[in-house]
Amino acid sequence: MKSYNILFLCTHNSARSIIGEALASTHPSGKFKGFSAGSTPGTSVNPIAADIATELGMDHTLLKSKSWDVYGQPDAPKMDFIITVCDNAAGEQCPFWPGQPATARWISSLLFVTMRLVSNAHFGLDSLLLRTGDFLIHHKFRVQN
To answer: In the list 1, 22, 57, 136, which could disulfide-bond 53, CB 3.0-4.6 Å?
Structure first.
């Protein structure tokens, strides 16, 4: 089974992008490996985001704020999708991404709804994860298995 690398970008890589990484990495299909980074990474991960990621099954030792420059290097993992989850980061000049991945912007209002669903006792989480995965696999990107 092919797996897809997804990079979630945000300015500080401390909350929204961390949750995106966890949602992808713990997706029940096993088809995604999540990554996250920021243009000006913070010094720590937001504790609420860390709790949510850990509850989703993400290894807490992997939760770190990282620069997006790491993923623009020739030896970096090749991304299939790059999703910007922050309005500020969406307006910044991004590095060159090897492999010409599909890019998208996950608007803040949708992400905040997602975060609220996840943090409110995981209401609808299984459905949300399945719909997110189905969208990435089948909708617009036309990804082949």
So the answer is: 22
Dihedral-angle region of residue 6 (phi above 0 means left; psi in -120 to 50 means alpha; beta otherwise): beta
Q: What is the CATH number of the domain that holds 13?
A: 3.40.50.2300
Give the list of residues 6+ apart from residue 27 with CB closer than 8 angstroms, or none: 129, 132, 133
> pLDDT digits over 41-73, tens only?
999 998 888 988 898 899 999 999 999 999 988
For tokens 């989850």, the residue is 85
CA distance 131 to 110: 13
Q: Which of 52, 75, 77 is nearest to 63 (CA)?
A: 52
Q: Which domain holds residue 29?
A: 4-138
DSSP string, 96-143: P-TT--EEEE--HHHHHHHHHHHHTTTTTHHHHHHHHHHHHHHSSS--
User: Does residue 77 sit within a domain?
Assistant: yes
In the chain, the number of structural domains is 1
pLDDT in tens, 94-117: 677 777 788 777 765 555 445 444
